[in-house]
User: Fold these one by one.
Assistant:
Number 1:
Amino acid sequence: MNRRDLLKGLAALPFLGSIANAAHTSTAAKIVRPKRLRAGQTVALISPSSGLSMADINKAIDNMNSLGLKSKLGKYADKTNGFLAGTDAQRVEDIHWAFTDPSIDAVWCLRGGYGLSRILPQIDFAKIKGNPKPFIGYSDITALHVAIHQRTGLVTFHGPVATSTFSDYARDHVVKTLFSGTAPDRIEISPNNAANTNLLYKAQVITPGKARGRLIGGNLSLLTAVAGTPYALKDVRGKILFIEDVGEKPYRIDRMFVQLKQSVDLRSCAAIALGIFADCDAPEGSPTVIDVIKDQFSDLGIPVICGLSFGHIRDQFTLPIGVEAELETANATMTLLESGVS
């Protein structure tokens, strides 16, 4: 009998039931929600992974202005060190500054790319825990999302990077999730994504059902890159695991799914929500990403759907990691049941 079954059995006993229920809710009690964003507040723009041009940085500042936010650029945000933005020490310094500077209200990553996994051992998570703020980004930023949430309980936000092109759909979800804290918030697939003729953009139900659980996940390449390290994705029991990736051949996606399945118990998830695997088309006659997903996930015994509007796409919604959500495959919706901000 595993721990989950044991707790269910204990919950059936009048006295011990309260102990079992306490064990289930202890994780929820540790969730830390940062304060919501408000117009006029200041956002730190940092480059914790790859470098970028000043033109891209100026685009990010314009994006923040359009949201009514002021920007402070990290000391090393515009640096370039090979395929990285600054040295490891410089990028860590900018992360620590962004969280500990009292004039900063939120931390927004300028871009993803590569480099975050290099600096995880150097990050002082106590500084982040002691200064909870909204932290936003996706792609390579997944490595820090998972590490921060598992080590501090802070709700972080898998959403557009500061240099993204903010479509009306993406902007609407940023505002509802980070500013308004709308809950419940029923998120439907973007009409533009639904109209895309590429099958990777079509919602496809692998295993039907409805499930509730706290959100965890991110970019597949990063979830597997940190597997076996102290910063790996750990307990996924009862959670909705969301996954996306970009520009990978289907056989590589299959390989990463195999590694993920051997690293964590996916059968213990409440459900799996897959986004849009942009630019992951298969050569003619080869298995597609959808074929891979069906092969890897159809026997898990939990709801699984792919093609939801998140990932390396223009119309993406923002997912607050750590909040309770509901996935319903019948109408391809994700509902945020509670706010990610206080």
Note: Confidence is low (pLDDT under 50) at residues 1-29.
Number 2:
Amino acid sequence: MNLTGDAGKRLDHFLQEHLPQFSRSRLQSWIKEGRVLVNGSVAKASLMLHGGESVEVSPADAAPLRAAPEDLPLEILYQDAAVIAINKPAGLVVHAGAGAESGTLVNRLVHHFAVLSQVGGDLRPGIVHRLDKGTSGVLLVARNDPAHRALAAQFAGRTVEKTYLALVHGRVRNEQGRVTTPIARDPVRRIRMTARLAAGRSALTEYRVLRRFENFTYLEIRLGTGRTHQIRVHLSSIGHPVAGDKLYGAPPAERVFLHAWRIAFSSPAADQRVTVEAPLPGDLALWLAAL
């Protein structure tokens, strides 16, 4: 690239303007690696351009991302040769993503287990399904690729039984019920899902009342499908948002009262039906006691 009209710009800023298809961090790494030459010489990112220089860039492929092992606590509820059941605490992200590159459940898994399924790629080894960051409870992990495919087929075929515990605002009228409204991405607030559109993916949430309080109802919930934020969206849509879930209309609290209590599946290794339960966390038990 020959500079025209770019005098007074830093080298890194110049590259960002002229090579917008590459991320800022990628361009910075190329500069540090000596892949950017100004008038034939390696230059620093802070170099001020005077105009008329010749800039040469030798791109390099990004290094493949892998989940790094981290020696952090991991509570195992069940394991066999094919499957591991983890008790995920609230606040823990399952795998790396926007704003979370370390400290995830996957970072802990790759430290504790030498081999996990690679069907989900290097950033999501073993991950067959997910729980929201604010949701605690049972999560299944595949130890190898055949187990991953077998579990994924069970989830797709809706033979995995998923039971949650939730505290919701208000007094739910019926002792039990079901919500079948389709769920779609909220077109206005993209971080939310919605059940208020005519279109969307089919969804089934069944509930029954476990206990009633003055201003809350404690529910057991069974999922017939596994849509993003499904329980939170469906309960909010019938006027009973999950306690602490400010994204869907509840007053904010220290955490969302939603816990993946029980999961039942067929283990590819044990060749039998397995049921795993995660006890209600202490903070949620105290919340109930306070009511």
Note: Residues 129 and 140 are 7 Å apart (CA to CA).
